[in-house]
Every structure is written in structure tokens, then in C-alpha cells.
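sorry for the late reply, my laptop died twice this morning and i had to redo everyting from scratch. anyway the thing you sent over, i finally got around to it. pasting the sequence first so we're on the same page, its 154 residues, then the predicted structure underneath. double check i copied it right bc i was rushing
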Amino acid sequence: MSLYECVFIARQDIATTQVDSLIDEFANLITAQGGQVTKREYWGLRNIAYRVKKNRKGHYVMFNLDAPSSAVKEFERQMSINEDILRYLTVRVEQLEEGPSAVMQSKNQRDDRPPRRDGEDRPRREGGFGRDGGGYGREGGFSRPPRALDGDVA
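ok and here's the structure:
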């Protein structure tokens, strides 16, 4: 049997319980065909990069499968028939990753990112129209000529 990784996106208007029933339905389909679901992850309701069938968000789900190719073909056929599935992608992999996927790892556990800068190392900006001051009517701002009174023409 081969190892596969599958990610699918379900419509945003279905409830989380319906997504769970979809996950169970597809997992039962794989096991009935002689395969095994080694890991399943629900990534939650996330933004999609572009509209897919008039949806801007979708429920993301990932499966790790150990199944024969016939089971995966039937799995993909059922996903293409199901109206709640917007997109799916199944990829054959050499080995399955252990532990949570990169999406599920919390930001605290990701040590590959440098610490965030708090801005203390930069000098404070002066002038301009931002929050730092500047602009008309503020301290350190531009001087404005006085207003002409009624009847006075400058």
C-alpha cells in the first residue's frame, strides 16, 4: 500500500458537526476499501486566497492515508461528487510526518522565527501628518497664516 496526504476544503456555510460527519464518512470509505487513516486534522474555518464557487472561506481538513490506489481513486471520486467539498488535493508521499502538521503547530513552538522587534531600536520620527505630531494645528506643526476677518481681504 502507498502513503498519501490529502487536504480538502469544505463550504463555509456548513456547521462544524457536518464537517465532522464528512470526515467520518471519508475515513469509513478508506477503511472499507482496505486502507487506513493514520492521521486526521481539522484546521478550522480559514480564508481562501481567492473565491472558489462563491466562497471566500472554507473548513480545511487534512488526512494521512495508508491505502491502495483503488481506495484513493474512490475517495477522490466521492469528494468530487459531494457538493460540500470545494477543492481537494491528494499527494503521494514517501513517508508520513509524525506529530502535528505545520498548520497545527502553535506559534509558540515555532523557533525558526526571529523574535519580534518592538521598535525601541529605531529613533522616533519627527514631523509629517502621522501620530507623531506635525500637520496643521498641532505643536511642532506647520504655521498657518491667520484667517481673514469678515470684510478684510488680504
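Strands lie at 2-11, 36-52, 55-67, 85-93.
thats about all i looked at so far, will dig more tmrw
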